[in-house]
Task: structure prediction
Amino acid sequence: MFDSVRKFARAFRVPTTQDREIAYLNEAKDRIDLEYRMRQIDRGMFRKSGF
Result:
């Protein structure tokens, strides 16, 4: 019973900032692209506020 509840909860879970950053890094095509993406994250690409 609890297994089905866990699966249901995971299906509607909103990805965290860290999850989005990791997914972005995983899409890198090569080392240069990975380093570029790491710099973008360090500059706050995913952590900017609306102000």
Summary: The radius of gyration is 15 Å.
